[in-house]
């Protein structure tokens, strides 16, 4: 019989254990091992069945079980201890409060389309979401007052399974928000708080606001699946990265513009501080700047004044090194939605110009979300040093006339949240060996330098236990996968012997776009098979990853790989695990000896998976891309050589696959098995195991990785960098812009208007070199005189600069230096002479040029206004 009505029964906990509700509601349990251990102890079997979800665990207990727990004095005492510890964590001053003064922003808004906090809240697809989750967790541990903003997807990202012929299949189980660790934000009268956006055809898009508590950080998630919406609007937050066109655009309008509304409502209802800095994590949330401009224009500011104020306090982080990874819409489509009244009083054409590809190589009919993000933020960054360089090149068209190195996009290299990704066995190992010195307490970074003091045999034994733990998990998941593919239990006895705890284990897990090259390892199947089945130095591979549902090429790569893993000759040495998620990752990263990454360089923005492996003593085997490009030091793993520039894709993959096979066969495997390798011949030599079975050179690499990479890959390091290099400066700029009824923003806007109106009349008319010898030598000095016409502009509003340095055969300056020339005399009719001395500091080719650029105290970079006049 079908039920005629459905509702959720709320769990009511007896008073002695009522604190469990607070512990389950705060997602700190997902990285605080004592709290997770408490929940596990309540019923280990059910804990596994509910996939380590405390809300589901408590909901599974009947009244009798709850009463039994409430009468257990040990349980009650532990609940009280953990509740007290959580309260201390939430209220005590932490790094941010202890180290930064009153000028530090009281609230920072962080916008992202996805968040990977825990598998129990499946609102993530891959690296962007995991990074966002780690950012919030590290901010919480440090006390950084971030408020997160995102969307609550009814089905999250898809669940992946495989068909009998190894084709990826997707399902979208619908989530019940009442069964998630979320609280609905309500008005004082008890009604749900609502954000509302007008849509074309007199429709509206409304959303409720759910709050997740990520330690000290509130995360606001907007949910359009509410009765007040029509059916189309209810489906806007149906799934992460689902749909396209109008559907995706409406998701991003809700995230950005609705997200700002949600922040205002949250501050009003909780009494919290209004954000002083707005951080846009990728372009998906870019419309938040438009909503903020609307707010300021409602207060009487003009468009350009509001834009100046918003830019001053906005940070934009780009995560993609490829144009295809950026959301782009038709400008007409965006204009259609804007004209429905989304930003009343704000000129639509001005908004459209923010995302216009009005530069060489751009499409004038396209609205580019990343371009809008850059134009709305005074500060921008990539997520690794190499990615910063790639981003400066990729977006250089926005600052035409400036050298690529001057493009105002910095970099903050990503990090990973240590307590989330360090296996509990590793933390326990550190406490056992170092006691209080281990530094593994709440919110503390491990004392990485102590790794050198660990006996080799103890560390090697730990690594074997982690490998065993992974193998148990792999076998369970592999059996479940084969059952879903249609196999019978009788066929699957072979899965009991899949993988070996004493065999070198290599991991590869990530999203499966083509540039990450999941199947590079299959380039020469016979050679891969020989590596897997080597008689004395075998290798085993654990692989996982999801392809976007619309990516047929990615699905074919998965199918090709799985068909190889199905071969009875090798299936005990290589496995593909479907439905890669955070829960799988927390076993996979610690259990692998080597983490493999072989993207097309330089298309990996950062690639933090290898960082998580390193935190557990894994070594990296990777193309020099993303974070590995800057942190590989020759002792923490291996770098896969890349093909010469200009190689065809086929030739490139052949070269790099061959290099990968050679590294594994001649360097990685011999070292793991304790065999000395001759660098000259690549021949195996005597063992370095010294009779104790421990490969000491390998263990030394582990120790070096822990002590040197550990501090660098930490999300705490990353968040501290964001605070010092981006958030604090943005807060100061925002405060300066807002002072005196936004006098600073008005002044900057008037300055920019004045310069743009007169810039066409500015020119460097003539340049003289005085005192330059016919055969100059190092140490010689000469005078540069520049004659500049500056009609309609005050000389103090510009900087006249000599740009000099080594010069190429094409007369391009290489790594130039800049010297500002001084105003020497006014020549009349808007003409001036500027002068300065240059010194020749090195031999070889030398050249210089002269340019005029804006100068204003509120500008933080020379190219900011995109204005430049150079001597020809």
Describe this protein's structure.
Belongs to the glycogen phosphorylase family. Residues 13-121 form the DUF3417 domain. Its EC number is 2.4.1.1. Keywords: Allosteric enzyme, Carbohydrate metabolism, Glycosyltransferase, Pyridoxal phosphate, Transferase. It comes from Arthrobacter ginkgonis. It is a single chain. The chain is α/β, with parallel strands linked by helices and 872 residues long. It is built from 27 helices and 30 strands. The strands form seven sheets. Strands 1, 2, 5, 6, 7, 8, 9, 10, 13 and 14 form a ten-stranded mixed β-sheet that branches. A six-stranded parallel β-sheet has the order 17-16-15-18-19-20, sandwiched between helices. A four-stranded antiparallel β-sheet has the order 23-24-28-27, with no helix packed on it. It is globular, with a radius of gyration of 30 Å. The N and C termini lie far apart (85 Å). The model has no long low-confidence stretch (mean pLDDT 93).
Could you list some keywords that capture this structure?
single chain, 872 residues, alpha/beta, ten-stranded mixed beta sheet, six-stranded parallel beta sheet, 30 strands, Agluc_phsphrylas
């Amino acid at each position: 019989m079908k039920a005629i009505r459905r509702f959720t029964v709320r769990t009511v906990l007896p008073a002695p254990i009522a604190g469990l509700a607070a512990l389950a509601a705060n997602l700190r349990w997902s990285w605080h091992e004592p709290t997770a251990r408490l929940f596990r102890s309540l019923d280990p079997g059910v804990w596994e069945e509910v996939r380590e979800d405390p809300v589901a665990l408590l909901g599974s207990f009947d009244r009798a079980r709850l009463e039994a727990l409430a009468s257990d004095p040990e349980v009650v005492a532990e609940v009280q201890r953990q509740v007290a510890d959580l309260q201390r964590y939430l209220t005590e001053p932490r790094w941010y409060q202890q180290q930064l003064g009153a000028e530090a922003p009281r609230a920072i808004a962080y916008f992202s389309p996805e968040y990977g906090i825990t598998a129990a809240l499946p609102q993530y697809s891959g690296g962007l979401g995991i990074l966002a989750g780690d950012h919030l967790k590290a901010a919480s541990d440090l006390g950084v007052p971030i408020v997160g903003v995102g969307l609550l997807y009814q089905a999250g990202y898809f669940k992946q399974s495989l068909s009998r012929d190894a084709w990826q299949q997707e399902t979208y189980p619908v989530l019940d928000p009442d069964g998630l660790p979320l609280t609905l934000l309500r008005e004082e009268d008890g009604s749900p708080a609502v954000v509302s956006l007008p849509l074309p055809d007199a429709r509206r898009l409304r959303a409720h606001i759910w709050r997740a508590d990520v330690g000290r950080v509130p995360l606001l998630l907007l949910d359009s699946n509410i009765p007040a919406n029509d059916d189309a609007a209810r489906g806007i937050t149906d799934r992460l990265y689902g749909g396209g066109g109008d559907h995706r655009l409406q998701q991003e309008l809700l995230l950005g513009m609705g997200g700002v509304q949600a922040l205002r409502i949250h501050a009003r209802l909780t009494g919290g501080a209004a954000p002083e800095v707005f951080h846009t994590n990728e372009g998906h949330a870019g419309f938040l700047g438009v909503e903020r401009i609307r707010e300021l224009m409602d207060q009487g500011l003009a468009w350009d004044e509001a834009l100046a104020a918003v830019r001053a306090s906005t940070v934009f982080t780009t995560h993609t090194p490829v144009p295809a990874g950026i959301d782009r819409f038709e400008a007409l489509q965006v204009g259609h939605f804007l004209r429905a009244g989304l930003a009343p009083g704000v000129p639509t054409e001005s908004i459209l110009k923010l995302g216009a590809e009005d530069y060489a190589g751009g499409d004038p009919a396209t609205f580019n979300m990343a371009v809008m993000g850059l134009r709305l933020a005074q500060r921008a960054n990539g997520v690794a040093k190499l990615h910063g360089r790639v981003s400066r090149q990729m977006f250089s068209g926005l600052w035409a006339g400036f050298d690529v190195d001057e493009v105002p996009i910095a970099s903050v290299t990503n990090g990973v949240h240590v307590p989330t990704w360090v296996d509990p066995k590793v933390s326990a190992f550190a406490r056992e060996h170092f006691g209080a010195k281990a530094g593994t307490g709440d919110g503390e970074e491990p004392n990485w330098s102590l790794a050198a003091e660990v006996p080799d045999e103890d560390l090697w034994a730990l690594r074997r236990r982690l490998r065993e733990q992974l193998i148990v998990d792999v076998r369970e998941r592999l059996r479940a996968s084969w059952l879903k593919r249609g196999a019978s239990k009788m066929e699957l006895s072979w899965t009991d012997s899949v993988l070996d705890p004493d065999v070198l284990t290599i991991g590869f897990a990530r999203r499966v776009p083509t540039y990450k090259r999941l199947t590079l390892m299959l380039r020469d199947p016979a050679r891969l098979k020989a590596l897997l089945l080597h008689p004395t130095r075998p290798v085993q591979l654990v692989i996982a990853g999801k392809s976007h549902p619309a990516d047929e090429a990615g699905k074919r790569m998965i199918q090709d790989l799985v068909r190889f893993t199905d071969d009875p000759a090798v299936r005990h040495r290589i496995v593909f695990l479907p439905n890669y998620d955070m829960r799988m990752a927390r076993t996979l990263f610690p259990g692998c000896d080597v983490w493999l990454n072989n993207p097309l360089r330089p298309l990996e923005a950062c690639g933090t998976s290898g960082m998580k492996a390193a935190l557990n003593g894994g070594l990296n085997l990777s193309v020099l891309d993303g974070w590995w490009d800057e942190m590989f030091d020759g002792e923490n793993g291996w770098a896969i050589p890349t093909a010469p520039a200009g190689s065809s894709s086929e030739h490139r993959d052949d070269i790099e696959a061959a290099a990968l096979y050679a590294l594994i066969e001649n360097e990685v495997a011999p070292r793991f098995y304790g065999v000395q390798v001759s660098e000259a011949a690549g021949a195996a030599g005597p063992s370095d195991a010294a009779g104790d079975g421990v490969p000491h050179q390998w263990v030394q690499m582990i120790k070096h990785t822990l002590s040197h990479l550990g501090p660098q890959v930490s999300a705490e390091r990353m968040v501290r960098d964001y605070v010092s290099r981006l958030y604090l400066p943005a807060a100061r700029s925002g405060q300066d812009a807002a002072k005196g009824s936004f006098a600073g923003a008005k002044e900057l806007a008037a300055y920019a208007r004045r310069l743009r109106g007169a810039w066409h009349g500015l020119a460097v008319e003539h340049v003289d070199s005085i005192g330059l010898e016919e055969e100059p030598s190092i140490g010689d000095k000469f005078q540069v005189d520049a004659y500049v016409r500056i009609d309609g502009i005050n000389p103090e509003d510009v900087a006249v600069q000599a740009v000099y340095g080594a010069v190429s055969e094409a007369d391009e300056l290489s790594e130039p230096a800049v010297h500002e020339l001084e105003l020497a005399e006014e020549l009349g009719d808007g003409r001036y002479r500027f002068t300065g001395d240059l010194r020749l500091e090195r031999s070889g080719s030398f050249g210089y040029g002269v340019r005029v650029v804006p100068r204003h105290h509120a500008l933080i970079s020379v190219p900011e206004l995109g204005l430049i006049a150079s001597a020809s």
